[in-house]
Amino acid sequence: MSDQIQFIVEKLNQEPFRKNYNLITFDSLESMQLLQLLNDVLGEIDPKHAVDIREELPEQTAKRMLSLLGILKYKPPGSISDLSAFRQGLVTGSKPVIHPVLHWLLQRTNELKKRAYLARFLVKLEVPAEFLQDDTVADINKQYEELMEAFKNLHKECEQLKTSGLSTAEIRRDISAMEEEKDQLIKRVERLKKRVETVQNHQRMLEIARQLRLEKEREESLAQQKQEQKNQLFHTEQRLQRAQLQLKEMHHAVVDSKPESLMKKLEEEINFNSYLVTEKIPRELESKKNSTYFLQKVVAEPAMSQSDLNALEIKINEVNAQINQLIEKRMMKYEPIDSKFSMYRQQASIISRKKEAKAEELQAAKEEMASAERQMLQKTNEAHELEGSEVLKGDEFKHYVNKLRSKNTFYKKKRLEIAEITAEYGILQRTEELLKQRHEAIQQQLQAIEDKKGISGYSYTQEELERVSAVKSEMDEIKGRTLDNMSEMVKKLNITVAEKKASLAPVIKELRQLRQKCQELTQECDEKKIQYDSCAAGLESNRSTLEQVRWWRVSSCFLFYLIYVPPNTFIIFHACIIVLSYYIEPNKIIIKLFSISFREQYTRMILEQENLGKKLREKQKVVRESHGPNMKQIKMWQDFEQLMECKRECFLKQQNQTAIGQVIQEGGKDRLVL
């Protein structure tokens, strides 16, 4: 109870109440103050209840609070199981009644605000059945229910949109994209219109296309009607089969049943119907007549203003209060003489009420059974329409029900676990808030003490130093791990290099032999080449002298023919020159003039350059592909070189330190000897 009161006081001291209570002042509140406090909390949940309870009667206050608590689905604790005692405690402002209500309300204020807001629109207004017989009232009630359902759907959509995470910026982008798409479609339609206008008889073609579209739509509608008629025929056949089956079952039931059971069943139906005709329906008819008489009387009276209605309500409340007081006085007196008669009367009234309730339950059960049978037939038809699957019966249905029950129990268990986790989360969240508040208060006190002692900022500096030391230790640990990883990598690389050396040793040995043999062959080749060059030079000098002789012979023949041969025989001379060009080297002037053209030379040069360009492009492609890995490998080797250099320096420093330490130790030993 102390934790409960402490929680209430903490919540009331926060926004939006700001009461500035402590445990003593809250415990010393009077009943009216407690009721006003409860009313303020209810007014925060539902603004309609933000009133001063001194301006209304206690019965009105209790009725209003009870109605709101019922809407909020508040259940009294186990110690206040009797609703009349709870109502009496609420009227009198009893602490054992008010404190649990305040604790329950302050625990879930936001949830209750939402529930109160929804209750304004979803609490159905009960209209008497006699009023619903009027068509206007029935239509308005139907519209009211439809609007309520529409509100439910809109609220669900609103909650889904809130939880979906869609922002206004995304919606605006979607709208702008849709507008752009719309503009594009409009432009496309305009372009198509302009393109169609250039075609001859475009109006007639458009009319034909429109008629074709209408005929296609008509064809689709006719096909749909045909399918619907097929479905209706199938349903009719199914109903006929079910009716025949029911007829057979009824025949079997009549054949197997006995007259005594049929008579007993008929007697039960006759008794029930006679009870309805003789007792229930006349009583209901009498009540309807009375209510109609009172309504006619009210309609016949002149119109009443709001003040008259208020006065009547005050009188009704006073009369109700007097009736309650008289009942309480009578219960307090409790005359023993009339105790037996009152007990019998009470028992008779209880039995009559039970009888009426059972009759209503029986009638409702019959109506429910009829509706269930209709639904069963409808669902059976739907099942046959879909796949023709059979309805579960007997043991299969029992197994299915047991499976559903097990799932339901599992669901309830998980739901309880979720509720417990949620409650524990709320407690932990509250504990976290309290610890944060205490931490802030302690920090403020510590800062005040530091200011007082003249060492302000000492705690902050100490925290920063601890944080920096922690960060430094983490960095040192990371560096140590990095060095360990690098040393392991170096070991692995050394092992790999040793393995590669071992595997390449026989290959290198063979390579050395092959290199020696290659050098010997190269020397021999050079000697042969020198001999070849000297022989070729001699032959070339002889050939040049012979070509000069042949050249002078041909040129002399050519001049002879130019001078002495007639012009008609120049073609024969040209043929002779072509024949002679096969016996002369191509670098001479005559062969260049008559056998080789410039086009062939440039074509050959172009082909050579194109082949060279292809080779260069392939080489460039290979270089580009291997550029990234090669650069990465170079970077890795540079890092490895830096790492080895760093290790070498560390090793040298360590050797120097060990040498200095040895010298110092030796000097100390010498001093000790001295």
From TrEMBL:
Boundaries of each IFT81 calponin homology domain copy?
3-126
Which parts form a coiled-coil structure per UniProt? 137-246, 309-389, 504-531
- What biological process terms from GO does the record include? cell differentiation; cilium assembly; intraciliary transport; spermatogenesis
Query: What InterPro entries does the annotation carry?
Result: IFT81, IFT81_CH, IFT81_N_sf
The text of the family note is:
Belongs to the IFT81 family.
Record PANTHER family: INTRAFLAGELLAR TRANSPORT PROTEIN 81 HOMOLOG (PTHR15614:SF2)
- Descriptive protein name: Intraflagellar transport protein 81 homolog
* Organism this protein belongs to: Circaetus pectoralis
